[in-house]
Amino acid sequence: MIQRVQTVYLFLTTILSVIFLSGHIIKFPDGQKNVLDISSEGIRIAENVDGPATLWILMILTSLVLLILLFSFITVFFYRKRKIQMKLAAVVIILVCLLLLGSVGYYFFVTRLYTGEIRLGLNMIILPVMLLFSYLAYRGISKDEELVKSYDRLR
Q1: Nearest-angstrom CA–CA distance, 28 and 47
Q2: Which of 9, 33, 106, 121 is the most exposed place for a label (fewest CB within 10 A)?
Q3: How many CB atoms lie within 10 A of CB 86?
Q4: What residue segments make up the domains of the chain, in order of their start?
Q5: pTM for the whole thing?
Q6: Directed axis angle between helix 59-76 and helix 123-154, to 10°?
Q7: Contact 13, 88 (CB under 8 A)
Q8: How far apart are CA 104 and CA 122, in angstroms?
């Protein structure tokens, strides 16, 4: 199971989704008094006088990340059933694409709603890397399936 390179890619996708959940999505200044901080917990306004106040929670993006985490972790354990594993890896790719599109759309929505200059963090780099790792895992699973089919033809 761990000898296959796609297992490593799926574990890396799982780890990156955990890192994405724990980090800040966008930080940008909004005027002189406050700073908007967008993380997986929601939008927070950190004011000079008061503590941070949550405006609303990013339920869709957080649930997509949790689904990616769940499916990429479960996919590892279907190493004997490669067809199911290929389907689950394709679901992970679709979920990561949806997360990427949803995040970009959300960034544009927030920047239109609140004025300010965006300082993008590590999480903007994590999403394309997650997409790359999930694609490489799918490609590795499909190569294993082709190899098994070629051995079956020789018998």
Answers
A1: 13
A2: 33
A3: 19
A4: 5-23+59-154
A5: 0.81
A6: 30
A7: no
A8: 14
Q: Which of 13, 17, 24 is nearest to 107 (CA)?
A: 24
The SS3 assignment for 24 reads strand
For residue 96, what are its two tokens?
A: 């990561």
148: left (phi over 0), alpha (psi -120 to 50) or beta: alpha
Q: Running DSSP on this structure, what letter comes out for residue 82?
A: H
Per-residue pLDDT reduced to its tens digit, 89-132: 999 999 999 988 888 887 777 777 766 566 667 777 888 999 99
- Nearest in space to 62 (alpha carbons), one of 7, 23, 6, 120: 23
In whole angstroms, give the CA distance from residue 49 to residue 34. 9
Burial letters 108-125, b for 16+ CB under 10 A, else e: eebeeebebebeeeebee
